[in-house]
Amino acid sequence: xxxxxxxxxxxxxxxxxxxxxxxxxxxxxxxxxxxxxxxxxxxxxxxxxxxxxxxxxxxxxxxxxxxxxxxxxxxxxxxxxxxxxxxxxxxxxxxxxxxxxxxxxxxxxxxxxxxxxxxxxxxxxxxxxxxxxxxxxxxxxxxxxxxxxxxxxxxxxxxxxxxxxxxxxxxxxxxxxxxxxxxxxxxxxxxxxxxxxxxxxxxxxxxxxxxxxxxxxxxxxxxxxxxxxxxxxxxxxxxxxxxxxxxx
Length: 248
Hints:
This protein is an alpha+beta fold. It has 5 helices and 14 strands. The protein has helices spanning 3-26, 61-67, 71-76, 160-164, 171-183; strands at 37-42, 45-49, 86-91, 109-111, 116-117, 125-127, 131-133, 138-145, 185-187, 190-192, 195-197, 203-210, 214-225, 231-240. A hairpin with a 3-residue loop joins strand 12 (203-210) and strand 13 (214-225). The chain is globular and about 45 Å long. Mean pLDDT is 81; it is low at 6-10 and 12-57.
């Protein structure tokens, strides 16, 4: 090897060793957080990237454990839960646990049609800070008050309007009904809107219409509300309508 090349080679090795040593000293074990994924260095800094979410199609074992309702409530509503298309579910306030909940929707959105947690646009019910919300193509909710959910049927006052509502046939009708749902409106003595305040011990009805996907009418009751705003809902399906096909 030519002497000049040999000197260059030694300089390169020394410089590489210095860089690796400096890099190692700049990172402490305490800097690493198991809830984050670290990407390669960019512009001299370590870039922190949130972990990927679980696919919406299912939850991991740890997710299921986190979202599971309390055992005492499962036992209390054991007879109610024997009926088909019913359930007991937990909703977290959206954004409240975004460092701990990594599946789609962060545990704040649920699809009664699919019976699973979803992202906001695919859900039939969502929980914001102190409000229930529905971000489907068309979502209408009503608070029935302190009504026993077991006694709620399609002809119950406040329910019959949503049960008899005809799904939009074209985008003009869809836009009109969606606009009404955002503003809210009264029908008889009941107020219908796509979002309503969360009130413990009250029973709600939601009609959720998603074009070419699902159209479902569901009753749910707030049976528990924690200090962090999360809720446990007891729910049952009242009616599943034909899949809507809204024309352009």
